[in-house]
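To close the section, here is one more complete example, presented without commentary so you can practise reading it yourself. The ligand is MU-OXO-diiron.
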Amino acid sequence: MHCTRKLTDAVHWVGGSDRRLALFENLFPIPRGVAYNSYLLLDDKTALIDTVDSSISRQFLENVLHVLDGRPLDYLVVNHMEPDHCANIEELLLRFPSLKIVGNSKTFPLIRQFYDMELDGRILTVTESDALSLGRHTLRFYFTPMVHWPEVMMTFEESEGLLFSADAFGSFGALDGFLFSDEVDFERDWLADARRYYGNIVGKYGPQVQAALKKLSGLHIRAICPLHGPVWRSGLSGLLDKYAHWSGYRPEERAVAIFYGSMYGDTENAVRILAAALAQAGTPNVAVYDVSGVHVSTLIAEVFRCSHLVFASPTYNGGVYPPMLELLHDMKALNLQNRTAALIENGSWSPASAKGMASLLGGMKQMRLLEPVVTIRSSLKEDSLGQLNRLKDSLLASLEEKS
Ligand code: FEO
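Output:
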């Protein structure tokens, strides 16, 4: 049975949510599930904007057929060729013999790489700013390469001001009946997952996101319709501000995130004392994470949020504790930059994790390292406690500086 929502009189949401998938991309935990959005526009011509993942094909096809109500589908716009949005292209081609697929010169080679389907006579190749009239509605195409694949484009419907933004402005999380961000408490219930989605999926491509934001800035956008998560018809400036921070690698908040690994509790003890001292001094925004117990995608979201990052690691195999290594490697891979960092190392006979962490941070741009580095030998003693106190003072002084 169909399950759809109306965006406007002419535009319908025909997507769905998957709450069974444990790992998005077989990589990122999604305890709240994920939505795959697809939008169907009815005018003199009918046009579908992207399809969905194979896991919800049945629901999707019922939705599309219900909204079409016997009409043929004339166009399928493929803004993004990642399989979580493309699993139903062939099925639609088979069901609608006059259907044309709309994409750009980078879209169709990817379709042929992923699938074996006959495309001769079935494609419409568009170039930058091309328009496609559907009657009263006109679609115009803007290329936004590497946000976050090379073929990605966004489609702007001019008469109603709807931006179909591909993965940009998306979020992890299934839709619980609502469709619009103003139907939920986004800040409370969704922002963390939106940030985690951005940081891990798109975070590496900040300059390309900024180029896209600049290109789209002249459009009169009344709603943003991403491929995952809620649709934005209000509060657009707040969303764009988040994207400006994330894509510019500017910290979203003056905040301290402390990431620690601890094999027997001694490094954790130092972190607890530091966090308590910061709180005692009135620092309002401190978060502590055990890198062994919190998924690295959540840690990445926090490095995108926070201005000050403390890394506390045991020495392991003469270097950095493996889960901490994973976090630092991910930060580098995602191009994270422009943060203030502090280091705590622990080593019973030859402490070496601070050197390893400093080296990895040194490979990232605009990373400022606070003094002193705290060196613990097995457990905190008076000398290392003194270092920890001085590091707390350095953090407090840095937090007071103008950003
Ligand atoms: Fe949701 Fe890049 O696919």
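Once you have examined the tokens, check your reading against these statements. The two ends are 53 Å apart (CA to CA). The chain has a mean pLDDT of 97.
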